[in-house]
Amino acid sequence: MKTGKVSESVLKRSVLKQIHTKREEVILGAAVGEDCAAVQLKEDEIFVLSTDPITGTSEDIGNLAVQVTLNDLASSGAQPVGILLTALLPEDITEQEIRKMTQQAEEACQKANVQIMGGHTEVTSAVSRPVLSVTGVGKVKKGGLISTSGVKAGMDIVVTKWVGLEGTSILAKEKKQELLTRFSERFITGAQKFDEMLSVLPEAHAAVKSGVSAMHDITEGGIFGALWEMAESSGVGLEIELKKIPLKQETVEICEFFGLNPYGLISSGAMLMAAKDGNRLTMDLKKEGIAACVIGKATAGNDRILLNGDEKRFLEPPKTDELYKAV
Does this model's pTM top 0.85? Predict the structure, then answer.
């Protein structure tokens, strides 16, 4: 395709015609020539925004781009309403690939009842593969906003589902042929399907009802990065038991194959939470069919400690995600 904005015919045919989900709050949405989207909120509701790009993979990129941003909104306690989707595309892309990405994004939005309100679609020599950037728009009742910085000393630290789900799924898709030299087709297919567990909207909803104090979705930098960010944002220390951090066996084995640390692997699909009573929170989550466990406590001071049996070491600031060592 030619460099620059995609043609109006491609925009209408392969982008706008793929968008079907509508929200009554959105009073101005995606259309040719529209530069803005508009959302009507009530007086007692707060407008919540988040933005994230997807750069580490091209497989299922439309779905991943939406999931990551909706998870950010969920971690604030907000109900997602819509997204703005910016697509920067390489010159060798086909219209069929553009349509597929948009359909992936719309399918993810439809499942969450979220509208694609607008965005920008451009072919450029600045990228060698598709880059999607999503801005999410959500709403939350006044007094219901949850932040990453709400952790207090003495609170329990909880993780939902399993860490490394997103990274494992990406590796199983992008590196399938390499993995087939050690693992069975069935094993790899199972790992690829981890992308079906990437939404944290259900656990965020259940946690808000349970009285959660802080939430943070676990993305680049993995669980180690998310723990540091939550502690730094809240000004607390941590004591975390490494063996309590939940991992799928597929994640352990695939990370071992590539020489990666699973605790530093991108982990959308798992949510980090803090609560005064972590056991109650995990029970409330499990009533909703969501796996969760307490992995440690917040402490006074700034020491962020990882405990592994008799071994004790300090958590370090976030590093480059382990995924980039393999893809």
Answer: yes
